[in-house]
Amino acid sequence: MSFISVFLMSFALAMDAFAVSMTKGMTLRKINFSIASKIALFFGIFQGIMPLIGWFIGIRFESYIKTVDHWIALFLLGFIGLKMILEAKNDNSLDDISYDKLGIKELIVLSIATSIDALAVGVSFAFLNEPIFSISSTIAIVTFILCFLGVLLGKSIGSLFKNYAQIVGGIILILIGFNILNGHTGIITSFF
């Protein structure tokens, strides 16, 4: 597999993580280099580790992973998105919401939800005899860079939505979940 192919695949795999990073950038009040790096590091590590796990699992569990990965992603992203919307709606004054919560648990859940596709890609590499460690490293680095930029972009965009950033962010997470589901099943597009 050529470097350009690996780079383009890494870019495609990082798109969900990039969108979620942008959402975090929108909803956190205080964004600095350290916070942007922390978010990007979580997404980059998980995107890099998941192909390795998939590669090690290989052919044995491929059919199981591919049948449920999109449902797991929809559930995790939908749950966090709904939680964000409900927290914003249940607060009487959106001005008083603290967007500065950056919990490790939430970052882990978001990282898993956005990297399940990378796990499935790793399973396919078990059959292709590709250098999995260099591919996983490229995926991790590309994801880190895109997510770092996504947080900063989200910070810029977040000021447009002001107090409604948490609601908009929750809606975006839910839509990403449905997009992942639709990409695997075509359920949504089959209705139109």
Q: What structural keywords apply?
A:
192 residues; mainly alpha; single chain; cell membrane; Put_MntP; 7 helices; 0% strand; transmembrane; transmembrane helix
Strand segment tally = 0
The figure for the number of domains is 1
Largest β sheet strand count, sense and barrel closure: none
Shape category? globular
Assembly state here? single chain
Overall SS class: mainly alpha
Instruction: Tell me the Rg in angstroms.
Output: 17 Å
Point out poorly predicted stretches: 92-99
Instruction: Give helix % range.
Output: over 70%
How many distinct helices?
7
Q: Return the average pLDDT rounded to an integer.
A: 79
Strand content: under 5%
Distance between the termini: 37 Å
In N-to-C order, the SSE pattern is HHHHHHH
Compact summary:
The protein has 192 residues and is mainly α. It has 7 helices and no strands. It has helices at 3-27, 33-57, 62-90, 104-128, 132-161, 165-185, 187-190.
